[in-house]
What we know:
204 residues
Amino acid sequence: MPSIAGIKSNTEIQREKPVVITECQPHWHGFAWTIPSLVDKCGDNEVSIRGETHKDSYRVGNAYNIRKDSFRNYAHELLTSHPRSLKSYLAVASVAQAFPQLLPITLPIDALLGKLHLGPYLWVAHKGHYEFCHFDPDDNFLIMIQGRKNLRLFKYDLDILYPNPLGSEGKTIQSRIDLDNPDFKSFPKFREAHCEYTTLHPDE
Length: 204
């Protein structure tokens, strides 16, 4: 198990390079969460769910809608493979606001954070969900609890990633590029982009 001091002194982290941390506090209580257990605790809570996430306009960070529903209903659709679950996404759900029953939460990486942040947040998606390429305003630690997530990370040269105009929906800056099918004719500078690629598994 890596020590906090060892992680802090990691040369890749010092150089602001992405790293995968394994076996960091493996007994953290959050790793025991499952969707059914969250429903038991928080099923009646109202959450904000993105819709139309299957459309091309979502994949390029251009448009989506928001609906309000209970976490129980969202989880039921997800677990029963309801057709609507394939075009829905519970994203950026503030634990303090949407899941207060889970508090207090001591994150494995709290000791690494050198500044205040607005998290933690919870994301719950169906298998195969594609999230639009975007630039987050803060440094992040992403903890995988269930399933796996493919990640593509780029340096913060926004011109190469062709951001959507200011005023687009959402709190992040979204790229106009579908990473699964990039249009190099429309976005020629994207050929210069350097991508770091990895897959996160549970407990990482």
